[in-house]
Amino acid sequence: MNGAEALIRTLVGSGVDTCFMNPGTSEMHFVAALDAVPEMRAVLGLFEGVATGGADGYARMKDHPAAVLLHLGPGLGNGLANLHNARKGNVPIVNIVGDHATYHKQYDAQLESDIETVARNVSPAWVRRSSSTAGLAGDAAEAVAAALGPPGQVATLILPADISWSDGGAVVGAATAAAPQSVDAGVVETVAKALRADGPAALLLGGTGLRERGLRAANRIAAATGTQLLAETFPTRIERGAGLPEPTRLAYLAEFAAMQLAPLRRLVLVGAKAPVSFFAYPGRESYLVPEDCELIELATVDHDVEAVLEQLADALDAPDVAVPSSGPRPERPTGALTAESIAAALGALLPEGAIVSDEAQTSGLSNPGATVEAPPHSWLCLTGGAIGQGLPVATGAAVAAPGRRVVALEADGSALYTFQSLWTQAREGLDVTTIIYNNRSYSILNMELSRVGVEEPGPKALSMLDLHRPDMDFVSLSQGLGVPATRAETAEELTSQLEASLATPGPSLIEALVPPIL
Amino acid sequence: MNGAEALIRTLVGSGVDTCFMNPGTSEMHFVAALDAVPEMRAVLGLFEGVATGGADGYARMKDHPAAVLLHLGPGLGNGLANLHNARKGNVPIVNIVGDHATYHKQYDAQLESDIETVARNVSPAWVRRSSSTAGLAGDAAEAVAAALGPPGQVATLILPADISWSDGGAVVGAATAAAPQSVDAGVVETVAKALRADGPAALLLGGTGLRERGLRAANRIAAATGTQLLAETFPTRIERGAGLPEPTRLAYLAEFAAMQLAPLRRLVLVGAKAPVSFFAYPGRESYLVPEDCELIELATVDHDVEAVLEQLADALDAPDVAVPSSGPRPERPTGALTAESIAAALGALLPEGAIVSDEAQTSGLSNPGATVEAPPHSWLCLTGGAIGQGLPVATGAAVAAPGRRVVALEADGSALYTFQSLWTQAREGLDVTTIIYNNRSYSILNMELSRVGVEEPGPKALSMLDLHRPDMDFVSLSQGLGVPATRAETAEELTSQLEASLATPGPSLIEALVPPIL
Questions:
Q1: Which residues of B touch A427 (CB under 8 A)?
Q2: B485 to chain A: which residues are within 8 Å by CB?
Q3: Structure pTM?
Q4: Which of A39, B55, B403, B505 is a plausible cystine mate for B66, CB 3.0–4.6 Å?
């Protein structure tokens, strides 16, 4: 058995049975070995960012990593932004980067480059270059274990071509994740005491604390103590909808987040980090915890956050509580098509079990509020701020969760980074509904320009944020990649097109012409 | 004056007056300062690979760097593949990567990552993080000087947001390139003597040795001594066409390159490296210089290669010689549309002064031969093997050389990595004719699969190299980005569409449906 086959069999044995890939010559033995291992599903992307973002979306829904197969340093570069997003979201990925044969590297051929130095950006804790065919499967099992964490991470395995093609590969047994760290009972007691004390307090929930079990425990704590529930700004995955507790997400804009935090005397971190501004702004604070607010760390992403929340709820003798409805779902919207009317349409139509991949940026501000009474669904956010994540994550989530409708909410500017995702959706027949918010602008940058202190931007500066000249036609772009598409210019059109898309198997896209919200 | 303005003014003062960019919030002060410096042209790309590849194409035609502006680590990742290509082609680029404010980095915000470690992949010799607003312009001048070389390189300047926005910037004077190394007269004499000796010899020309002055000197040498003229496989820029000496390019396939080199007893390197296989293959040699062939290094890319070639020609007392015609230009092709008939159409129609950006891969094999008697033109190749270079390089070349028609020859698979380039071409009104060779396959990988020893690939492996399911429609894709497009299914259609495109200002695209060549 050659190294490639032993590698793939070992991955499958560890439950890593899907590989998102954009391979080249140095990966051809891996590709050839796919036919020997029918359990491994191979998903082709036309661009590496599709593959890495696909693996991210997949693992968010499976809670188990997929593999990625990339072609040398430039392939890793093309996939880097979405690996960055996965790293920031603590999402497990087994990132396999093919390289030249060991003896070929000395010749500095065209594609030779320092892969390790790029990999360290997204895999600071686990980069390995396999050095023997006999040891390759063991390296792979360790990569899976490293990826699983906790916390989940991107483990990068560099695979020289000759290590892959040589005979002498030997499959090794399944990798297992390390047990999460436990939280000392004393710490739980301290937090319980703090939450019983006077003055406004909040839990800031992150990571798996935003899954159903964690949210229900947090809700018990909130009901028993009056503690407010906050969620990190860009959750990796939050379970939400009718009957589920909805924490208040910290605002993206630091000035609004500061207002949310200002009343607090105690902030308890539960799988989340202390809140900071997304960017720095001249004359404004980066660190957002008020000076007179006590910061208490209950659990980090190294812990079993859901179990810790239950420990805390038990320590407080907090009983189960039902989540009251906040009101009816929105009506189907009519009239002008705006970001708000799209939010209403989503609120009216989002089906049970939907998975929302949210990269709507400024246009998406109304979506969480409008969908809070939709049937239970999962919501996936832009964890690392590197745009071009929404369409690949939707693609990978759909691979991971057949039978669930994926809805990608996508800003026009962001869509263009990894638009190739649509082709993979068509090829794999994935049930993905994409809404493109086409406001013909990097709208968020128009806002940021004034926030960083540029009072009167000139025409050249503004032209760098403007996506007119020429207008993009997302219907044509989508059809060009094999995904049927329609254009909506009124709320009624959007609503009926959304309804049709949700009811039609396979992918489809709606281009929504909306004004910028600002 | 803030740092950003001092930076831009210093760049302009050093002749770096074009910036290809895809900025974000941390770069907003740079963007705002553009209006204060009208001499700086700003070219927006919808994806970072367009910006970096654009700067590559620009510098190949200008012999002077453009600047690139990218957004933190993920933006650098997205631009990395084309910076890799520039690095391998010794193309100068001033690569500016915005970062968080200095004091903000400690908070590990969403977009925080280790930029330096990524940058080292493409800028092994020059990465600097500016640490003061007063010193920023000096850093920029040094970056320009470093980029200029010789040899040209990617110099990466990391620009923290507060260094950019703070007052206290001071413009510094123009950067100058270091003088190229000179070649000792004794070395030239040794080579002259070797070329006068018996037995087949060749010059392997690379870098600026493939410009007109270098080629004419090489031609004198060849005529005087019977030395064969070879060119590296993927020149950064080669000047060619009627009346110009045409060296034989080393084949991409190592087995063919080995056949080209087998008869030689002496191989003289002139701005090129010793030939090696592009990839390693089981049981085949990577190093291609025959054992009984003497390898002599006359000049590297550190030298003024054209001057060295003239020194050598003079040392040989070699007179000027005219280049005879190799025959008439091809007729306009008729009948079935194939890669060969496209080559004939190019040979028949390529206008004087054209700039060809060649990423046609397997489909392009006949193009050089068919165009050797076309009027003089420049030909730009895939220097680093990282696909997704052709359309951005065409874009940047057109920015650099208004009045010259750019022709992008682009494989379908490669086109999809940086297809966003078309939007920039439309926005800037660039005279670019793009031909997409749509053979609905990663054709080169089908060839490589058998070359690496996979005798009977299975259906899963083959499906990873197949671009059917769904078929891409490049006419729709192009129109979606604002570039008019047509589809050709016969040689006559292709020829008339090409003629029309060449005669029409602005960009246009032709989708050529061709069978794979294998």
A1: 469-470
A2: none
A3: 0.98
A4: B55
